[in-house]
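Design review, sub-item: ligand-bound model
Attendees: FS, YL, KQ
YL presented the inputs for the flavin mononucleotide complex:
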Amino acid sequence: MQTLPLLPDTAPFPAEQIATLNRIMTAASAEQRAWLGGFLAGHQAAQSAQPAAAPAQKAPLTILYATESGNAEILAAGARKAALRSGFAARVLDMADTTPTEIAKATNLLVIASTWGEGEPPQRAADFMRDLMADDAPPLNGIRFAVLALGDRAYVNFCHTGRQIDDRLAVLGGTRVVERVECDLDYEEEAAHWIDRTLGELAPEPDGAAVIHVDFARATADAPSRQKPFDAEITEHVNLHGSRSSTRTFHVELSIVGSGNAYEPGDAIGVVPSNDPALVEQVLRAAGGTATMRSTSRSAIATTSRPSLGRSSPLMPS
Ligand SMILES: Cc1cc2nc3c(=O)[nH]c(=O)nc-3n(C[C@H](O)[C@H](O)[C@H](O)COP(=O)(O)O)c2cc1C
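KQ shared the predicted structure:
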C-alpha cells in the first residue's frame, strides 16, 4: 500500500491551503494525481524561458530477494516503490531466477533474504547460494551493497542466510554501504528504516539541480502498520453464495479514508480482526467466568485458563 506524501507544514502555502491540498491529494485517485503532477510540470516548463534540461541519468539499483513464504518478496516490492520515488532505476530479482554472474553486473545491490530449515536458505534460492559460496564465484568489485536478513530468534541459526550473503559479498570485493540488519518476526518497522537508510546511502550526490526536500519519513512514521493498524470501517459485507449454500465467501469493502494511504492493484493489505465481543462473552460465561482472553494476531483465541475452557469442548477451537 502506497503512503501518500502529504505536504509538510513547511510547504510555501498558508496553513489552510496546505490542509485543502492535503485533502485533495488524499481523496484523489492515482490517475488524478499523475495527471495533476504532469499538468503542473508542463505548466512550469511552459512558463520557463530556459530550454528544458536533459533528464538526469538515474542510478541503477538491483533489489535481490530470497523467500520461502513471501515476506522478503513483499519487502523487495516495497523497496522498489521507495527507490523509484527516490529517483533510482530499480528492478527486483528473485534469487531463484538469477545467478551470481548476473548479479556481478549490478552497481547498487540491496539483498533481502530469509532463513529456513535449520539455518538454510529458502529452497528456491539454494542454487544461487551454492554458486555464491563456490570457489569460482565471480568477483563483485565495484558493487555497493547492503543486506537485510529475515529470521526468527527462536531458531538457533538466527538469520544465518542473510549473514552468509553479507559476509560473502564483502569477501568477493563488494563495498558494504550499510551494516546488515537482522530482523525477528516483527520486521516491518526495522525493515522500513533499513530501506530508507540504504536508499539514502546509495543515492547519487545531487548534481546541483534544484531539489525540493520533503520530509517523507514523517509521513511513513505516521502510516498505519502491523503495530499501529488503522481502524477501517466496513462499508460492504456481502455473502457471495446463495442462501442454500453452506459455504460462505464474503465480499468485504473497507473505507480507508483518513488513513493517508492509497490502495493500488497488486498491493497487499493485512487485516487484524477483533473477536466478536458477544462471542467472547459467551465463551467466558461457558468457562465459568474465571478465564481472561486475548485475541492473537491470527485471530485464534488464547486463554489463561485452558483447562476450564476445555470442559466446554464445543467452544474449543479445533
Ligand atoms: C519451518 C521454518 C524454519 C525456519 N528456520 C529459521 C532459521 O533457521 N533461522 C531463522 O532465523 N529463521 C527461521 N525461520 C523464520 C523465517 O526466516 C521468518 O519467518 C521469515 O520472516 C520468513 O521470510 P520469507 O517469508 O521471506 O521466507 C523459519 C521459519 C519456518 C516456518
